[in-house]
Design goal:
- With 211 residues, the chain is α+β, with helices and mostly antiparallel strands.
- It has a single domain, classed as Pnp Oxidase, Chain A, CATH 2.30.110.
- Helices cover 25% and strands 35% of the residues.
- The chain is built from 5 helices and 9 strands, in the order H-E-E-E-E-H-E-E-H-H-H-E-E-E.
- Strand 7 and strand 8 form a beta hairpin.
- Helix 4 packs across helix 5.
- The longest helix is centred in the N-terminal third of the chain and has 14 residues.
- The relative contact order is 0.19.
C-alpha cells in the first residue's frame, strides 16, 4: 500500500470572510448547497448523521437531506433503526462535505419526529421499488442471506400489485433543529477558514475559529 502520510493535496485559496457571509446560517447553507448543485458535486445532499447511544457509544452514518428551511433539516428512516433509537437522546450532529469545493458544514442540534402526515406524503412520492424496500427491510436486523430480503420484497410486491404500497408505521421523518453551525473552507497549507454561528436567544452570533 502507498505511504498514506504522503497523500495530500492543496485546497486552493477560496476565502471565507465574515463580511461576505449571511448573518443567517440557513441562508448561508442554501448558498453553499446551490453552489454544490451547480458544479454537480457527487451526492450533494448526503450528510453524516452522528448520534450517541445510552451507553455513550458514538455512531455515524450517511443519510440524505430531503428538505430544509428555518425549521430545520429533514431526513427519513426506520423508527426502529439504531439511529432512531439513539435519536431519543435528543441531540445529534450533521456534517456535509463537498469535496470538490473543499467545504464542510458541521451542525449540532436537537432532533424531533415530523408529523405522520408529512412522512406519509413523502413516502407516496418515492419510487415504488423504494416503498417496497422500506416495507421489506427491518433496518439493521440480522438476516440469513440477501435471498431472504429479496424474497420479502417479492412477496410485498405481489401483495400490493395494482395497489398503493402503504407507508409502514415504523418509518418516517426526523427534523434536526441546529443551535450551532460551522462553515469550513479548505485553503492552501491547511490555513483553513472556519466560521461558526451559535444560537443565542433569538439571534446568531458569528465567530472565526482557528484552523
Amino acid at each position: 500500500m502507498k505511504d498514506l502520510q504522503s497523500i495530500r493535496r492543496e485546497y486552493g485559496d477560496h476565502e471565507l470572510q465574515e463580511k461576505t457571509m449571511s448573518s443567517d446560517p440557513f441562508q448561508q447553507f442554501e448558498t453553499w448547497l446551490k453552489e454544490a448543485l451547480e458544479i454537480k458535486s457527487l451526492d450533494p445532499t448526503a450528510m453524516v448523521l452522528s448520534t450517541v447511544d445510552h451507553d455513550g457509544m458514538p455512531d455515524s452514518r450517511v443519510v440524505l437531506l430531503k428538505e430544509f428551511n428555518h425549521d430545520g433539516f429533514i431526513f427519513y428512516t426506520h423508527y426502529k433503526s439504531p439511529k432512531a433509537l439513539q435519536a431519543e437522546n435528543k441531540i445529534v450532529a450533521l456534517n456535509f462535505h463537498w469535496l470538490e469545493l473543499a467545504r464542510q458544514i458541521r451542525m449540532r442540534g436537537s432532533i424531533i419526529r415530523i408529523s405522520r402526515e408529512k412522512s406519509e406524503t413523502y413516502f407516496l412520492s418515492r419510487p415504488r421499488e423504494s416503498q417496497i424496500a422500506a416495507c421489506a427491510s427491518k433496518q439493521s436486523a440480522v438476516i440469513a442471506s440477501r435471498a431472504e430480503l429479496e424474497s420479502r420484497m417479492q412477496k410485498i410486491a405481489k401483495q400490493y400489485e395494482g395497489k398503493q404500497v402503504p407507508c409502514p408505521t415504523d418509518w418516517g421523518g426526523y427534523r434536526v433543529i441546529p443551535f450551532e453551525f460551522e462553515f469550513f473552507q479548505g485553503r492552501d497549507n491547511r490555513m483553513n477558514d472556519r466560521i461558526r454561528y451559535l444560537k443565542q436567544n433569538d439571534h446568531w452570533k458569528m465567530d472565526r475559529l482557528s484552523p
